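Please check this record.
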Amino acid sequence: MEYISLLEELKNKIKISQNRAILSVNKELIFLYYEIGKIILKNQSQKGWGSKIIENLAEDLRKEFPNMKGLSLRNLRYMKLFAESYPAEIVQEALAQLTWYHNQTLLDKVSSNKREWYAKKAIENGWSRNVMVHQIESNLYERMLLEGKTHNFSQTLPDKNSGLAAETLKDPYIFDFLNLSESYLEKELEDSLVENITKFLLELGKGFAYVGRQYHLEVGGEDFYIDLLFYHLKLRSYIVIELKTGKFKPEYAGKMNFYLSAVDDLLKHKDDNKSIGIILCKDKNTTIAEYALRDNSKPIGVSEYKLSLPAELAKELPTVEQLTKLGKNIESFNRYDNQILEFLEKKETATTKEISEILNLSDRRVREILKNLQNKNLIKKIGKGPATCYTLK
């Protein structure tokens, strides 16, 4: 037993060291890319060199460092944009905690005034690149910071908690992972959210811990049931969530006030903060909701939820049917994207057959992936027929 304990301790030490080494290598790589971009910017600015200089540098650097990935023309252009977009050193430190693919995504998909915020959220929440893309496409920045939220936190919580509670609340919440009929019931909504609890927790945000559904409370000898009960680790508060399939009604605030009083009395530990209520409705009249909360002594937020992304974003994304037809599981698809791009950075050109062998996929599947990369303007096709090759743009 002592040997097993010793072995486990050493294994943990090695794993921690390996993780630190990976983080250290990534950090140095990001700093290197930033310095390369800064030097290119400086020389173009001071010496008036055009874009041709980047093409020459990409060619010569790959000759000098044939085994080093990431020196393609496309990547050098990203490095220049990277340095141009983030002049402040403090931002560079934060971005060095993200992978290069995360940083490329921020440059591609996010306007300059939002990039630092998304970067910090990605670090704070440990988002994968795909999760970060989803949060960007669901307008998380606007839902958490810009759009008007309905709550009474500033009147009912101490200053140290009211700001965090307000930041934690979103409006609207996006439940695009649910598959509900048009005339769904509250129970069906609750069932679907619990069945998809991992995605639901991701949408709620960092810090939410699931306690239970239809949580039983006995008050005055009678039984009451809370739709969903959570605990927020950072707020150190119970979070009571009530689901409504219609428009917000003032009486919902009174019922939530009752639940919060009961939770504070029956569940709250002496070290916990006041419990918080969130009423999720399909629709709300902001003025009516504000009146309902104005003189309420309990901290309550009222938010809408949507079962799909905003129309202007949804129309740009593939449908579930299209994804199923093409057989594109998002996680694996992006993994193959990255493998192909890395392969082309190293080899410069490759045929469909060569890429099929590397990925161990059928030629047909590879052609689908290559077509998508062409549509993204990341690669281009050279030649025709059997001599067709692909290279980075």
